[in-house]
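Late entry, evening session. Most of the bench is empty. Finally got around to the prediction I had been postponing all week. Sequence below, unchanged from the version circulated by S.P.
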Amino acid sequence: MCNMASARRGLCRPRRCTPNLPQQGRRRRIEELSRSSREKLLQSRDKMFSKFTSILQHAVEALAPSLPLQEDFVYHWKAITHYYIETSDDKAPVTDTNIPSHLEQMLVILVQEENEREFGETGPCMEYLLHHKILETLYTLGKADCPPGMKQQVLVFYTKLLGKIRQPLLPHINVHRPVQKLIRLCGEVLATPTENEEIQFLCIVCAKLKQDPYLVNFFLENKFKSLASQGGPNAISEDVLKGQDSLSTDTGQSCQPEEPSGASGTEHTDLEDEPSRQMGDLSASLENLSVTELPEASVVRPNQDYNLVNSLLNLTRSPDGRIAVKACEGLMLLVSLPEPAAAKCLTQSTCLCELLTDRLASLYKALPQSVDPLDIETVEAINWGLDSYSHKEDASAFPGKRALISFLSWFDYCDQLIKEAQKTAAVALAKAVHERFFIGVMEPQLMQTSEMGILTSTALLHRIVRQVTSDILLQEMVFFILGEQREPETLAEISRHPLRHRLIEHCDHISDEISIMTLRMFEHLLQKPNEHILYNLVLRNLEERNYTEYKPVCPEDKDVVENGLIAGAVDLEEDPLFTDISPDNTLSNQEWLSSSPPATPDHPKTDGKTEVHKIVNSFLCLVPDEAKSSYHVEGTGYDTYLRDAHRQFRDYCAICLRWEWPGSPKALERCNLEAAFFEGHFLKVLFDRMGRILDQPYDVNLQVTSVLSRLSLFPHPHIHEYLLDPYVNLASGCRSLFSVIVRVVGDLMVRIQRIQDFTPKLLLVRKRLLGLEPEGPVIDHITLLEGVIVLEEFCKELAAIAFVKYHAASTP
């Protein structure tokens, strides 16, 4: 019975309790909803009251008689400080208060005051702002972001103040110190709501420094010196926490320039006595609202000497492209400042060099392993600030185009940054790119053995060679590709600079694509305004003229001809190889002069230069008549090359003018003719390629002859003698461009005899190449026939170059 009773009591107990649980839950939910509704109603009422107060305030200001500017200014500042003294709610956003409108009115008053005074004269409102450290107080409020959104308002106020006030404010200690502190808050966290205001503020500071570069010294901190003088990090933290205003606090500078006299002669009125009491109340109120200023950093970081740069560097990583571009613009302004101390600090105490090179490296590594070289070459011109790209809108898209544009865009930024930078900074930045990107990232790719990898990396090198415009970055790129050696080459030491050796070897690679791309890279490199390029590749080996055989000219030597030919030189018009040339195929002196192009810049005449008509005829008559096809096609004569040769030679003269090259060859009496001659690795490969012109693909031949014609255009007497003078008396075992072509022609004359209907086939191939004949059946010996056509055109081009250079030298 007891057990049954107990069981009944146990069963009955839940029945009595279960119905009460849902009722209690509903009651709690109702209470929570009613409490939430009351809070929303109160917030709504407060907002409405705040807006009504703001409207009423503006109405009163509009209707009330205007106060003196200083009283009005102080009134608005008091209204802001009263908010912190009187309010008990630090969670309401700043937009629900009158603070933004008061700050705006303070700016309006300051601008109006300046407009009413002579330039440079400081008015009482500005003196009040400086004397009472209003910017310091605003910085404190902005850093604490109290009320929420205050940091944004402070940034806007600083930006407008610096932008709208014409008189220089940054020299004032009570301006540049809070500005420096506010700079540190910028870029701390990416993608924040204040990012746009932060970059606007930083850019206006950069613009002010660009106007007055000496002001940058206010923003160069030396925290290590500050630590030594103040006894360690704790001393800094205590100063900041106590709000001390010693000159060494936060700026870290043991001594600052004195304030301009305009701010020191402030009259102490009742209005200016009262704020000291008010600031005490404000400090107490800030403590109640948990707005105490935190220490800047208890641990000193090595890269904090130039906070303006560091903040901009942080913002270059912003996911918002517009913010990143603005930050890059700010950095470009800073690197261009002429102050040596700023340049040194920028390169040694910030991570600017690392940012540039690391991003270059990461963007390069993000490229696909293989990209079509034609796509790399033809992708549209890249401007670093305008690299927006839409794959969907691009009709010529290809895999990796977005990554390629990003890489080329950032390389363009690095190039422009170095171009605009102060010289010390530019050299340091360029060396960083050389060491950390060229050597660290690109060189392993160029030295690899994979043909696809070689082709892609060489195409990218070719593209940046074309793109670079900074002389200092170009110099580092040239040292990277060619090395710094300037002494004559020897065959045993051609691999002294491994990358140079590898790239020149690639000009004669088994892959025609690699050969063409590398030759194109060298062709564009030769067009760059850098003297070391041509000297390293060619001139250092021609300096002693030991390619010639010196025969002293005696007065009784009867073999010397009137036109200055070296004794023993052979006139090619009398050479047995050219006995089939008819007089109709040569041009007279008068005909050469009549086809002369316009005058070119003065170029010193080479003493003893062979008569130009002999040189020109020598090149034009190299190819025998039966191997010529241009006579049968209109518009392919020699004269078509004259205009291009004149324009190109004029451009090269303008580039080489500052290199102070000699006007005549070095006297043979002063040359070391006993030294063994080696034309150099570059010319060796080109001459070897030229010797195989009849057996190489058409595109390879075009590129080889294009590089050789570029070299021939340079206005150096040794280059002209070695490449363009057929009558130079070569030393035993030496070869020149003309002698290489003579050997090719000798081989051609033998091979012509074995080909049936050689001339008709040659003409048909020329017409097909010009698009005058449709493609048809494959013609036998097509490679040889195309090689003959390229050879004929190359000889005409060399003749035009020789004539243009002679004409330029003989023009008074």
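Two things to note before I forget:
The mean pLDDT is 80.
Residues 652 and 714 are 6 Å apart (CA to CA).
Will write this up properly tomorrow.
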